[in-house]
Each structure stands twice: as C-alpha cells, then as structure tokens.
Predict the structure.
Amino acid sequence: MSLAKSPWIIHVNCNSCNGCDIEVVACLTPLYDAERFGVLNIGTPKQADIMVVTGSVNYKNVNVIKNIYNQIPDPKVVLAVGACASTGGIFHNCYNVIGGVDQVIPVDAYVPGCCPRPEAILDGVVAALSILENKKKGNIKGKEVKLKGKEVPSNA
C-alpha cells in the first residue's frame, strides 16, 4: 500500500499568530477537502507520516519539536508552513526566537506566505507526498535529533 494514498499529518504550532493554523484547519474543511488526498489530521506523532509545522521556533518549544520529530516513524516528512516556520518571519529578531524550523530539525518542503492560502498548503502537502514516497522507496531514514536538555541562548 502506498503511503501517498493516505498520509496522516500531525500539526505542530510552534509560536505563531495563529494565521497559518487557521489556514491549515481550513484545508480540512469541505471547501478545500484535504481528505480527497486521503489526508487525516491526527493527534499522535507515533502514527503520523507528515509533520506540518507553523510558527517560529523559540527556546521554550525547541525540545518539544525535537521530541515530536523523533517520535514520528520513518520515513517522515517535515513541511514548514508560513514565513515564520520557514525563516522566523516577523519574529526573527526577537530575543527568544531561534528562527525557522530548519534551525532545529530537517525540513523537506516549505510553503511560503504570511499567511499562506489553503491552496498553497495543499500544494505543499502534495509535494510532501512525493517526497514521502521517494523516501519509502529509497529506505531513507530521518536524522535523529538529539535532545540537549534545557535549551538556552548561547549568549545568556
């Protein structure tokens, strides 16, 4: 059975204004109908195939993101949704913000925008499906991300 036929996603909100979160949830409504691709939003990382991340990473949630990423079975795909998840967005110069998700875990696909439209998010999920299938065929494992305990800024 192909993973691309019924991918399960877990949505992780790092530290966002909730604009991207509303658009991700809008993808699940009958108007955009992500279920036509077999997409199912679940609450446990141990059954997820795709990790959809919104918001910028800060020092308070970095261990949570690493922990969720490590719990997702291989093959796995990380999709960064929005400007904040991609680069840190409008929060990139804040004292407690590390930056985009790619500063902490490997990201496979990006959906740009502030906030991206549901159509763009669905395009990102479809792109993530092909990446997921390629990882499955090549038996590619995700990089294990080490937890260092309490993450603090290096200048603190």
About this structure: The beta strands are 8-13, 40-41, 50-54, 57-58, 77-81, 97-99, 109-111. The longest helix spans residues 118-138. Residues 2-137 form a domain with the Rossmann fold fold (CATH 3.40.50.12280).
